[in-house]
Design goal:
Elements (H helix, E strand, L loop, with lengths): L17 E6 L2 E8 L15 E8 H10 L4 E4 L1 E3 L2 H13 L8 E3 L6 E7 L2 E7 L7 H5 L5 E8 L13 H7 L3 E6 L9 H5 L6 E2 L3 H8 L4 H9 L4 E5 L5 E5 L4 E5 L12 H14 L4 H16 L11 H14 L4 H9 L28 H5 L27
Parallel strand pairs: 1-4, 1-9, 2-7, 5-6, 9-10, 10-11, 11-12
Antiparallel strand pairs: 2-3, 7-8, 12-13, 13-14
Length: about 400
C-alpha cells in the first residue's frame, strides 16, 4: 500500500502507463444457457441460447476495459483459430493491451464449455500449461496503478522467486487486488492468507472466506480478513456484499439487486472490476460496493461470459430506467436512494459509452468502433461537458 509522507494512504500513481495489469490463462468459452437440466449419461438436451467468447482471465480484462480502465494483459495464445479469435476480440474489439502477451506455434488454445442452469453453472475445461513461465513472458511489469491476482498455495505473491511479478509491480507502486479460487482438496492452506501482507485488497466469496478463516459467519470472516489486508470484501450471493476499508475507517454492506440470473459466468470478475475502479477513483466504500453489485447484476442477465460485462452505456441505460421510474415502491425507492451518486458520474442525455458485444465467433461486434481512440470514461470527464466521442454506440448482445 502506498503512503503519503504523513503515513496516510494515497492512491497509486495516476500517471502510470496502465490502470490495471493482469496475467493468466485465456480460454475459449463456449456457453450454453437456458438449460432445463444438465444432460445425464446417454442423453441430449437443447439449450435456449449459446455464446462464444474469450474466457478465463479475459473475463477480468474485458470487464476492466469496458469500465474505461486502461488494461494490459499478459497471456499465452495458441496459433489456432480459437487463439486468433480471442486475440482479435481482446485487442481490436475490447481495447486490451497485449504487448506482454505471446502467440505460440503448435500450442492449442484452452477451451471451456459452460452450461448454465437454475442460476448456476457447470463447466468442462481442457488445456495445457503455458509454454513459458510468467517471468519470461512478463519480464518487468509495466507501470500500473493496480494488478489483480489469484492467490494459491503454490504461486506465492510475495515469494522471492522469478514468478513473483505481482510483488515486483507492488514495489513499483501498484495496488494488489487479490481473489482466490475454491480449494477442491479441502486443505484451505494458511499459506494463502499469509500472502495478504503483500496485497491491498482481498475479494473472496462467502464460502471461501469462511473456510480460510475457520469462521461460521460472513461477518466474522470479514473481521478476520480486515486484520490482514487494508481492504477486505466478501461477496455473499443473494445477500449482497460486505466490506471493511481500514485505510478510510469505513464499513459497508450492499444488498444484491433483484434480477433474473441467466448466466453467472464471469460475474465475480465484473464485481472485482467495479471495486478496482471505485478504489482507484477514491469513491466512498458504500458507493464502491453498490457500483460493483450493479455491474455484476447487469452481467448475469445476459449470456456470453466476458462479453456480457457491462460498459458505461449499459450502466447509463439501467440507471436512467431506475431513476425515471421513481419511488413506485419501497424497493425502487431504495435503489434511487442507494444509487443517486451515479447522477454525478453519468451524463443526463444519451452517451456513446461502450455497451455489450455479441457473444459469437461468427459475428464481429462493433464495440471497437464505439471505443475508437481512447476517450475518458464518464466518471473521469468533467460533468459540465457533453460527451466528445462521436462514434455510434455498439449493439447490445442478445
Amino acid at each position: 500500500m502506498l503512503e503519503d509522507t504523513d503515513g496516510s494512504p494515497v492512491l497509486a500513481d495516476p500517471g502510470a502507463e496502465f490502470d490495471v495489469f493482469l496475467h493468466g490463462t485465456v480460454f475459449l468459452d463456449i456457453i450454453f444457457t437456458g438449460l432445463a437440466t444438465l444432460p445425464s449419461n446417454g442423453t441430449e438436451v437443447w439449450a435456449q441460447g449459446m455464446g462464444s467468447c474469450p474466457g478465463g482471465i479475459a473475463n477480468l480484462a474485458i470487464a476492466t476495459s469496458r469500465l474505461g480502465l486502461r488494461t494490459s494483459l499478459a497471456a499465452a495464445f495458441g496459433d489456432d483459430d480459437y487463439g486468433e479469435f480471442c486475440w482479435r476480440t481482446l485487442s481490436e474489439q475490447e481495447g486490451v493491451d497485449l504487448s506482454h502477451s505471446e502467440r505460440f506455434e503448435h500450442w492449442h488454445s484452452p477451451v471451456t464449455v459452460s452450461m448454465a442452469t437454475k442460476g448456476d453453472r457447470s463447466m468442462v475445461s481442457h488445456g495445457h500449461a503455458a509454454p513459458v513461465p510468467p517471468s519470461e513472458m512478463i519480464g518487468k511489469p509495466p507501470p500500473s496503478r493496480a494488478v489483480m491476482v489469484d492467490l494459491t498455495a503454490d504461486e506465492l505473491v510475495g515469494a522471492d522467486h522469478d514468478d513473483a511479478w505481482a510483488a515486483r509491480a507492488a514495489e513499483e507502486g501498484a495496488l494488489v487486488f487479490a481473489d482466490v479460487g475454491w480449494d477442491a482438496t479441502g486443505t484451505w492452506s494458511p499459506a494463502v492468507l499469509d500472502q495478504l501482507g503483500h496485497c491491498h485488497a482481498f475479494l473472496p466469496n462467502a464460502a471461501e472466506a469462511m473456510a480460510y478463516t475457520h469462521t461460521d459467519s460472513v461477518r466474522d470472516a470479514l473481521y478476520v480478513l480486515a486484520d490482514k489486508v487494508p481492504l477486505a470484501v466478501v461477496t455473499d450471493g443473494a445477500n449482497g456484499a460486505v466490506a471493511i476499508d481500514s485505510t478510510t475507517g469505513e464499513e459497508a454492506h450492499a444488498p444484491a439487486l433483484r434480477v433474473p440470473a441467466l448466466d453467472p459466468t464471469g460475474a465475480g470478475d465484473v464485481f472485482g472490476a467495479g471495486v478496482v475502479l471505485g478504489t482507484l477513483s477514491g469513491w466512498p466504500l458504500e458507493h464502491r460496493l453498490a457500483f460493483a453489485t450493479a455491474c455484476s447484476a447487469l452481467a448475469v442477465q445476459q449470456f456470453g461470459g466476458s462479453l456480457a460485462a457491462p460498459g458505461w452505456g449499459d450502466l447509463a441505460d439501467w440507471w436512467h430506467g431506475i431513476r425515471d421510474k421513481g419511488g413506485q415502491d419501497a424497493y425502487h425507492t431504495s435503489l434511487v436512494r442507494r444509487y443517486g451518486f451515479l447522477d454525478d458520474l453519468l451524463p443526463v442525455g444519451p452517451i456513446s459509452g461502450v455497451r455489450r458485444a455479441a457473444a459469437t465467433i461468427a459475428r464481429f461486434s462493433d464495440v471497437g468502433l464505439a471505443r475508437g481512440a481512447h476517450h475518458d470514461p464518464p466518471w473521469a470527464a468533467p460533468l459540465e461537458k457533453p460527451p466528445t466521442d462521436p462514434a455510434r454506440p455498439a449493439r447490445r448482445g442478445r
